[in-house]
Amino acid sequence: MTVKSRILEILERKKGQVLSGEALAEELGCTRAAVWKAVKSLREEGYSIEAGSNRGYTLCPGSNLLSQEAIRLHLKNKTGSVRVCREVSSTNQEAKRAALEENAPAGSLVVANSQSAGRGRRGRYFYSPEKSGLYMSVILRPEGKLSDSLVLTTSAAVAVYRAVEKICGISLEIKWVNDLYFQGKKVCGILTEAVTDFESGDIEFAVVGIGLNLYVEKETLPKELLGIVGGLYSGKEEAGKVDKNLLIGEIVNCLMEEAERNEISEIYIERNFIPGNKILICEENKIREAYAEKICSDGRLLIREKNGEKRALSYGEVSLKMQEK
Ligand code: BTN
Fold first, then answer.
1. Which of 188, 221, 263, 320 could form a disulfide bond with 180, CB atoms 3.0-4.6 angstroms apart?
2. pLDDT in tens, 262-296
3. Angle at 135 between CA 249 and CA 184, to 5 degrees
């Protein structure tokens, strides 16, 4: 760990407190000049660090830049790697690379301030502009077959639900299979990808990618997303107050707990707004109407077709059918 990284870790841990340069130098076993150099470099990266008249340093309480040092502070299990990027094509892509090439352990994560080619389900593009959202991918190494992987997806939805409720005090709704909604708009999308052993069908690793909008800038939002996509907060200022590193840490902690439990949580069923409604199902580019009966204990969605036949869906694209007046 570099001096800069260690100083950032201490500043984040003691955010808002005055830390003497002398004490920092002593703790890190370096010179005061080295401390000053590290602080200067952190400031150049955008950190608001005040230097008081008593020659102490303070990381401003409002400082909210993403860093692996700050995220790590909030992780319960610190054995995974944490990588924070300014911009990547896709955090899922980077996480898959880390899992394959670096054998990154479960709980490792890749976070980005923005994505140039964010991926959504069904090969769609996921709009990932800088500052307004959190884009993160977590590596999991569950035991089991690809056919058991539905629980990974539902675990991720529950993890986001629990973390957002705890940190932001906002209670989201879940749309089967793994979107989260607030005030009628989609605020979070989840893309779970798995690499399996071809012969046994066992999962080698899975990457759970989460895109969570803190707010949306209506002026720059692509037209096709207007009215569909929303944020946790109505504006930039309010959204800026959420400690992003803490929220990411909490999502990872909850995800690891949920994945460990390996069962469909009650929360997933209770917060799901699809059951009990007429829905539209999009399969193989065809849309048909059905009725959503309930979420089964294995996470599948039990539907009743128009001809009365019942089926349990493991994946697919569903939406509420607008009720005729
Ligand atoms: C969807 O709603 O279709 C799923 C969207 C998943 C987006 C997240 S953002 C972080 C991670 N990296 C990606 O490229 N995609 C996921």
1. 188
2. 999 999 999 999 999 999 999 888 999 999 999 99
3. 100
